[in-house]
Amino acid sequence: GYAHWKGQVLNSDELHELYEGLKLNKVNRYDYVLTGYTRDTSFLAMVVDIVQELKQQNSNLVYVCDPVMGDKWNGEGSMYVPKDLLPVYRDKVVPVADIITPNQFEAELLTGRKIYTEKDALEVMDMLHAMGPETVVITSSDLQAPSGNDYLIALGSHRKTKADGTRITQRIRMESPKVDAVFVGTGDLFAAMLLAWTHKHPNNLKVACEKTVSAMQHVLQRTIKSAKVQAGEGNKPNSAQLELRMVQSKKDIENPEIIVKATVL
Predict the structure, then answer these.
(1) Pair 32, 191: CB distance under 8 Å
(2) What's the confidence (pLDDT) of residue 128?
(3) Which is it for strands 32-35 and 151-161: parallel, antiparallel or unpaired?
(4) Which of 124, 130, 228, 115 shows the shortest CA–CA distance to 181?
(5) Residue 230: helix, strand or coil by DSSP?
(6) How confident is the model at residue 98 (pLDDT cuts 50, 70, 90)?
(7) Domain 11-178 has CATH 3.40.1190.20
(8) Can you give the residue ranges of every domain in the chain?
(9) Where is the Pyridoxamine kinase/Phosphomethylpyrimidine kinase domain (predicted)?
């Protein structure tokens, strides 16, 4: 990412004030809420209060949460937000979420269980289902891909309750080619596209994830190709050159050619 940034960070009081303005204007009915990176426990708690109130306005509201807390580098996990956010995510945020998109490390943090195998990952997703969300997508992992070391494994699970009370769970695995570059905003883009495609395909996680991951690949490949041209032969692209080419990828985002297939487990 970039070495420097300037500006202000919205705090919980300011978020509450903005939401009160929406209520006064009677524009506080939403179909979806999507949240991502935050560093403050009071802000996160305010998000929960707002989501719960919005769900009272519309019981069909879908809350998509990307529980951004950390990641793994060379097999070692590390949090890049304050540690006191973990219990807020685990005990307050995840229980009101409908869809969550943790990476492997974040899924391990939320459940207190390590993932070493695909079986572990499936059991961790079941634990996350039990906490509240109907849909869980582990967006990246360090599991060994059947196709080899050049591929990244993502896993998804969708649980729904039928009219007779029985539960059906659809589980999938995806293998996508690794891209040798560091991008900013890929998690945000993934969560936003998963929201869009689960809206289009609410009962078919396989199709929703295939479209999401395929679109991601189109954006990343276009970005790295353009960045290498800008950097010049033999030079490593910088952060500015690696800005995601989303505008240029509009058609791929709206109607992606499926280049990453999901395997039903």
Answers:
(1) no
(2) 98
(3) unpaired
(4) 228
(5) helix
(6) very high
(7) yes
(8) 11-178, 180-258
(9) 47-237
